[in-house]
Specification:
Structural class of chain A: alpha/beta
Number of domains of chain B: 1
Distance between the termini of chain B: 32 Å
Strand order of the largest sheet of chain B: 1-2-3-4
Order of helices and strands of chain A: HEEHEEEEHE
Helix content of chain B: 25-40%
Shape of chain A: elongated
Number of strands of chain B: 4
Number of helices of chain A: 3
Largest interface: A-C, 44 and 52 residues
CATH architecture of chain A: 2-Layer Sandwich
Largest sheet of chain A: 5 strands, mixed
CATH class of chain B: Alpha Beta
Radius of gyration of chain B: 18 Å
Number of strands of chain A: 7
Oligomer: heterotrimer
Strand order of the largest sheet of chain A: 1-2-5-4-3
CATH topology of chain A: Beta Polymerase, domain 2
Radius of gyration of chain A: 20 Å
CATH class of chain A: Alpha Beta
Strand content of chain A: 15-25%
Helix content of chain A: 10-25%
Distance between the termini of chain A: 56 Å
Chains: A alpha/beta, B alpha/beta, C mainly alpha
Structural class of chain B: alpha/beta
């Protein structure tokens, strides 16, 4: 397992935090750590500013973009958590940035202007959770058919679906 | 059962000999249309590779064009988005044609009892031989080809009459229509917005 | 769902005059699975390609919320079905990071050996099927024959050729036997000859080289910004390999090189894969020679690790331990935190973002599929190439539809 608690990595993350607090004056970032992974919580209203700052500080690869529905998690105030896993390719430093969203306003700015690789993961998050990304170049469903009505990975959608998988015409041998 | 049907349809000796000859020829030259979606597709490729050679049984070429095949092997899970494609390809295949449903996912949905996976292609398409396994070993697939060959030879006719008798859907009982209507109403889902009919 | 024409957003109406649309449909002759490309062609030149995916979306992530950490490994297997055990190793690596479990040396070595065997498995198939698509069926047969030997090794260890579900939280399903060790040593001895045959058929074959050189070039900046990892990124000059940069399992103990190239074209990607096969054999050789003895499960994993079967059947403590590890509501509790842990799977960086919720099930089990990022780059790679290059480029980025769609 990765042992990242050696000194060089710690000071790297401290320099990153310092530079970010310079670039993002006035934005409160919530830092935490678990199993030597650094997480930061950004407010949703200033998300694009934060992401641009992360890129400026050196996180040039967006490894993953995903969301979590916190409906059944207990002890939380928000419904959706959008997670950005970032990587600095040259130094190998990782960061997990999170932001929280609530209904009814499920729109956040798209990260495609910062990393163009965010394109498909954002479409998938829309497909699965119904979170809208403003400013996305080609915004439609990715994995499910376009006429699918629900957002499956939400906690109020059952695993077996609501009958969509049975809703097809039957072909018998005689007519084919 | 297939031989009883033949007897009912009238068997003068010439026709049955012709049927037997045609069935023998068809059974020993089944060209598969590999509808390989997922992991079973890899086992299908392994069956066609040199260790367990499928072409010994007549499946010399795996043609990817439905117009040139007579056996469709549905290998792998079929999801909602893929099922109309599968049905369209089945309809494009010329007669006589057979279908092998390979793997647990194609037979019954397999491990994936989720919103997206069709719980068995036989709900929506006619299937002749089922192969269980996840994935089935190449030897199991070869066994299923041999079973299909026996099925063709014991009941095949030269003008494919035996297929016209299968007028009922052979899969599990259709999803309860009333339940479907109730689910749709509860979710505000209108049927008129969806128009898809693969047959016409 | 009618398969209608998708309008590509990049081309405006003027440029679209004179272009014709070709649907490289979900069922296509290339031996790459169910994906659909809508190509806009100007004669033979591809002007634009719009991918349409989702033809194998089976709800994996929803299942991750229903099954517990040990049950989900059966499902995770079915994602990258070309190298199944690589997914299991990645999944349990992420789970063990969340739960904070340390593995025994023997378990780490066996998992490393399997990870490298799966790397060989994947690269052999990628190269074999790509050469088959480009017209050379012989190399396909050679590749599959070698893969059969690896299948036998997996079967000896776990009982299944494929989809082994071999790893467990904190250890493995069964320990390996001496004849398995002998099989692996035998394989290591015989592989270099197969490699020489295969590379002689493929890498210096004039047709293959001409069809893959300078086709589908990916620049270093595009690879980084687009999220490319693994052989695709390394062939464009991003010399990053998680086995060296964030060592996990037993990779610290071995001496191997990271293979990269500057070319960025299809031939470079294939070259990187061929070189990685040689490095994998080096690692397997070192690992099987130094395989430590000892237990598979650490003695102090508490409820997470499974006890030895002899103990379960012969002592009451073993039985209780087994009961506590298996029965729902009694298992180990994951902390209410989230982790992102990645391993170097043969296709790239396969990561899992797991959110724990105090029980032995994931609250959210997100897979970070390398194929998703690579396929999104496809429309950039194919601009200006010919129609027949579509197959070469698709093969070189090694899209696996089940990982792409989950």
């Amino acid at each position: 397992m990765a042992n990242q608690s050696t000194d060089p990595k710690l000071s790297e993350i401290e320099t990153v935090k310092l530079r970010l607090s310079e670039l993002l004056l006035g934005t409160s970032l919530d830092w935490s750590e678990f199993r030597s992974q650094t997480r930061v919580i950004c407010p949703a209203a200033e998300l694009l500013k934060c992401l641009k700052a992360f890129k400026a500080v050196g996180f040039d690869q967006l490894t993953d973009l995903t969301a979590v529905d916190l409906l059944e998690y207990g002890n939380v105030n928000d419904r959706f958590e959008v997670v950005y896993c970032l990587l600095n390719v040259d130094s190998g430093l990782r960061l997990i940035a999170k932001t929280y969203l609530n209904e009814p306003d499920l729109t956040i700015p798209s990260a495609t202007s910062v990393w163009f690789g965010a394109d498909w993961p954002e479409r998938e998050v829309y497909d699965m959770f119904g979170i809208l990304f403003a400013g996305h170049p080609n915004f439609k469903r990715l994995l499910l058919p376009d006429e699918f009505q629900s957002f499956p990975l939400r906690k109020d959608y059952p695993v077996k679906g609501r009958g969509e998988r049975h809703n097809f015409p039957v072909i018998t041998r005689a007519e084919s | 059962m297939a031989t009883q049907i033949n007897k009912q349809l009238g068997d003068n000796i010439f026709l049955t000999k012709l049927d037997a000859a045609a069935s023998w020829a068809r059974a020993n030259s089944l060209w598969p249309m590999p509808f390989a979606t997922a992991c079973c597709g890899i086992e299908l490729m392994s069956t066609a590779a040199s260790k367990h050679d499928l072409s010994r049984f007549g499946s010399e070429v795996m043609r990817f064009s439905p117009r040139q095949c007579d056996l469709m092997i549905v290998a792998g899970r079929v999801v909602m988005k893929m099922l109309p494609v599968l049905q369209r390809i089945w309809l494009q295949m010329p007669e006589p044609k057979w279908c092998i449903s390979m793997g647990a996912c194609a037979c019954t949905g397999g491990v994936f009892d989720t919103y997206a996976v069709v719980q068995g292609v036989d709900r929506f398409m006619p299937v002749d031989v089922y192969v269980p396994g996840c994935p089935p070993r190449p030897e199991q697939l070869i066994r299923s080809i041999i079973d299909l060959q026996e099925k063709i030879q014991s009941g095949g006719t030269i003008n494919a009459r035996e297929f016209k008798l299968r007028i009922l859907p052979e899969g599990p009982a259709r999803f309860d229509e009333d339940e479907l209507v109730r689910i749709r109403e509860r979710n505000g889902f209108k049927l008129e917005d969806q128009k898809y009919d693969p047959v016409h | 769902m009618p398969l209608e024409l998708l309008d590509s957003p990049d081309l405006d109406a003027n440029k679209r005059e004179g272009l014709w649309t070709l649907n490289f449909g979900p069922q296509h002759p290339a031996t790459h699975t169910t994906l659909r490309l809508v190509l806009q062609l100007d004669g033979e030149m591809v002007m634009d390609a719009e991918p349409d995916i989702g033809f194998l979306h089976s709800g994996f992530e929803k299942l991750g919320e229903v099954l517990d950490f040990n049950q989900y490994v059966t499902i995770v297997d079915r994602m990258n079905y070309i190298s199944p055990m690589a997914n299991e190793i990645a999944w349990h690596h992420a789970v063990e990071t969340l739960l904070g479990i340390e593995l025994t040396p023997r378990c780490k070595y066996i998992r490393t050996i399997f990870a490298e065997l799966m790397r060989l498995h994947d690269h052999l198939l990628c190269l074999g099927t790509c050469v088959l698509d480009l017209g050379g069926a012989t190399a396909f047969m050679y590749a599959f024959n070698e893969r059969e030997t690896i299948y036998e090794i997996c079967e000896r260890a776990s009982g299944q050729r494929f989809h082994t579900s071999y790893t467990r939280v904190g250890g493995l399903l069964y320990d390996v036997t001496d004849d398995w060790v002998a099989m692996v040593k035998d394989f290591v001895r015989k592989f270099p000859k197969v490699y020489r045959d295969f590379s002689g058929l493929v890498m210096k074959n004039r047709i293959f080289v001409e069809r893959t050189r300078d086709v589908g070039i990916l620049s270093r900046e595009e690879a980084i910004a687009g999220g490319a990892t693994g052989p695709v990124a390394r062939a464009s000059g991003v010399a990053r390999d998680l086995r060296r940069d964030e060592p996990y399992l037993a990779y610290d103990d071995f001496d191997f090189d990271v293979c990269a190239s500057q070319g960025g074209d299809c031939y470079a990607r294939f070259q990187v894969r061929m070189m990685e096969m040689l490095e994998s054999i080096k690692i397997i050789e070192q690992a099987i020679d130094k395989l430590p003895q000892g237990p598979i499960f650490a003695a102090d994993t508490g409820k997470a690790g499974m006890p030895d079967k002899k103990e379960v059947y012969r002592s009451i403590e073993g039985l209780i331990h087994h009961f506590e590890s298996i029965m729902p509501n009694r298992q180990m509790q994951a902390p209410k935190e989230s982790v992102y842990a990645a391993t170097e799977s043969p296709n790239g960086e396969l990561g899992y973002y797991i959110v724990g919720d105090g029980s032995f099930r994931a609250y959210r089990a997100r897979t970070r599929p390398p194929s998703l990022m690579h396929f999104a780059l496809f429309s950039k790679l194919i601009r200006g190439c010919m129609l027949s290059d579509v197959v070469a480029v698709l093969g070189s980025i090694n899209i696996i539809a089940a990982e792409l769609d989950r």
